Amino acid sequence: MKIGELDLGAKPLLLAPMEDVTDASFRFICKEFGADMVYTEFVSSDGLVHDAKKSFAKFLTYEDEAPIGIQIYGNLPDAMVESAKMADRAQEIVGGHGADVIDINFGCPVKKIAGRGAGSGMMKEPDKMVAITKAVVEAVGKPVTVKTRLGWDDDSKIIVELAERLQDVGIKALTVHGRTRQQMYTGEADWTLIGKIKENPRMHIPIIGNGDINSPEKAKDAFDRYGVDGIMIGRATFGHPWIFKEIRHYLDTGEILPQMCVTDRVALAKRHLERSLQLKGEKVGILEMRRHLSCYFKGLPDFKETRLKLVTLNDPQELFSTLDMIAARWGEEAPQAGGIYGL
Fold first, then answer.
1. What pTM, to 2 d.p., does this model score?
2. Whether the Cβ atoms of residue 165 and residue 130 lie closer than 8 Å to each other
3. Which residues are catalytic?
4. pLDDT for 37-64, tens place per residue?
């Protein structure tokens, strides 16, 4: 699959952009486990135009994450164009690797974004969505892609026609989450319309499917049944970034890898924590790791007290000691993966 001149190989697996999740440390971990492309947290075009420090900080990417997409969102055409130009120049502005792709978020369903007409709120204004996309494509040199949903609600699933219109104004790939905005993340993702886009003989850009891919079997079924060019994985990576390795192994061999053992999960959590501390410093690095640390150990028995430590401790050495204790206490009880994950 190619996005412009960027070749991601056959059946690529992509890490979805997720606010407060896909920071540089998590992207790094997912790349190690075989994510073929990763995306930044979504960046507010309004924040960039108004010189918000937090927004610019999300521009910083690293060589070991590449290829990487910077995702922007907003509903004001001029602000979207200006923020796209800034994303195009991210390497010049903040250093690091910069963007290989500029992705437009027309899919976020949360009220504070969609409710003011951005994200999936743009599904109510498809003409404006297409006009903004066209303006962004014409303003930047890097490939522009779009991530969106089926429609606003069950009565307005416009994605098949909309996909053509977005392609016609120059996007190089389209990612579709198989839910409407009104569904948020409830119910099952419906991939049938994603398949209809692929069946359209006018479509020639890559179509990437997203929604409910949480196992190797589901990933293979999505490729086989709906003919998508790539798959984007979001919530299933929480506490489970090795899902990329599991899916790739299954696609290549038809075999299911054994469950990752607790000892390996501890080693991974420590590596992730070290990276977060390195990139963000002690205070922020620990604070932003809390959402990840406890997720690495979902399902362990009698874990409530230890989980509380993982989300409240502020001293790095105490956190590392707690992780060592987890390995000592639970490492012999859980299934062993035999080092297959390389940790």
1. 0.93
2. yes
3. 108
4. 999 998 888 777 666 677 778 889 999 9
